[in-house]
Write a structure and sequence with these properties.
Layout lengths: L2 E6 L2 E4 L2 H10 L3 E3 L2 E5 H9 L3 E5 L2 E3 L1 H11 L3 H13 L4 E3 L3 E4 L13 E7 L4 E2 H13 L3 E7 L5 E9 L14 E6 L2 E4 L2 H11 L3 E4 L2 E4 L1 H9 L3 E4 L5 E2 L1 H11 L3 H13 L3 E4 L7 E4 L13 E7 L3 E2 L1 H13 L3 E7 L3 E8 L3
Parallel strand pairs: 1-5, 9-11, 13-17, 21-23
Antiparallel strand pairs: 1-2, 2-4, 3-4, 5-6, 7-8, 8-9, 10-22, 11-12, 12-24, 13-14, 14-16, 15-16, 17-18, 19-20, 20-21, 23-24
Length: 351
């Protein structure tokens, strides 16, 4: 026999016997004041399973009528239902949360174990604002939980991603014992002419790429870093010396996002990591945790892309970036640049 419930705003209220039959056995809903309150996603799922009936203003709602009504009450309700049904059918106990759902570990349930992770739900078509994502990460971090992003595509398939702040560090200690050397800015790169300095920078810091024997070409971010740390003096073709401000200004006219890239590069280098161009992977940098010399260089560990603090993610682009990183056995990291640089890990998660 089905339990009868009444739709009241954004919840369904079932009388006291629903607590025993639905909550105590399968942890649907939340007991409150002698009744059981179900969210709309829970109600739709139980209606689909033919475990409850739902009444509204004296009329019994079938699944179609209820679903249509719920979608008018809650934005993107269909996404919530798709993800809720998927998680339930995977064997998880699920409860509503500030992000969407909180999910309990297999073998655990409300009242017995803490939730394992919180799920934020969106569509592949909805742009994702970085400030909103960081707010959700902070909320979940404060609760000492993990945040999972559930992206529903146009065919209602779900891809789950774990999203978290991370701290990156490496073992590279720069010890460049050399006098300040002069280098030249030519078009969109810098050339180091001194062969001894060129070899030292490349072999002991993995800076640049040899143009030929004795001459080293550096990227703009590498050059700016070496200028700022006092290793290089950089001049234009007319031998006019460039300070940090003038060099970074010239670089920004070449690359509009130069300063965002540079802030991320600087943070990575100062953390003992070695960033190199990630152009072949469609990102700003590929990053090495360990570097002990050119002869022993191994595969990079991360792909890092620098974004502004107000960045808006295209979820199709995010999906491509994460899939590519996984395919080449690297972690996808976004460097969110504001007053400070925060690193965000985004990776596929299998439930």
């Amino acid at each position: 026999m089905r339990l009868s419930g009444k739709l009241n705003g954004n919840i369904i209220i079932i009388e006291k016997h629903g607590i025993e039959e639905l909550y105590n056995t399968s942890f649907y809903g939340r007991p409150r004041d002698g009744t059981l309150e179900l969210s709309l996603a829970e109600g739709a799922y139980l209606l689909y399973l033919e475990k409850i009936t739902v009444w509204f203003e004296g009329e019994e709602l079938d699944f179609k009528l209820f679903f249509t009504k719920a979608s008018s009450l809650v934005k993107n309700f269909e996404l919530l239902y798709i993800v809720y049904k998927d998680l339930r059918e995977r064997g998880y106990y699920v409860q509503p949360s500030v992000t969407g759902f909180r999910v309990y570990p297999r073998g655990g349930h409300p009242g017995k174990t803490p939730a394992e992770f919180f799920v934020l739900i969106t569509s592949e078509r909805i742009p994702l604002l970085l400030p909103d994502l960081k707010m959700h990460i902070e909320t979940v971090d404060n609760l000492k939980k993990r945040l999972v992003l559930a992206i529903v595509d146009e065919e209602s398939d779900i891809t789950f991603y774990e999203v978290k702040k991370t701290v990156l560090s490496g073992t590279c200690e720069l010890k460049l014992d050399c006098s300040i050397s002069r280098a030249s800015l030519l078009e969109d790169r810098v050339i180091v002419w001194d062969s001894q300095v060129s070899n030292l920078l490349h072999n002991h810091g993995f800076f640049g790429k040899p143009m030929d024997e004795g001459h080293l070409q550096l990227s703009l971010v590498e050059s700016c870093y070496l200028l700022d740390t006092g290793v290089l003096e950089i001049v234009k073709r007319d031998n006019k010396r460039l300070d940090f401000e003038s060099f970074s200004g010239a670089a920004s006219r070449i690359e509009s996002d130069f300063m965002i890239k540079y802030r991320a590069y600087e943070k990575l280098r100062n953390s003992g990591l070695v960033p190199k161009t990630g152009f072949k992977f469609g990102t700003h940098f590929r990053v090495y945790r360990k570097f002990e010399g050119i002869s022993g260089i191994s595969h990079s560990d991360y792909l890092v892309h620098a974004v502004q603090h107000d960045h808006i993610f295209s979820l199709q682009q995010l999906s491509r970036a994460v899939r590519l990183a996984n395919s080449v056995r690297k972690e996808m990291i976004y460097a969110a640049v504001d007053q400070q640089v925060d690193f965000l890990f985004i990776g596929r998660m299998r439930l």
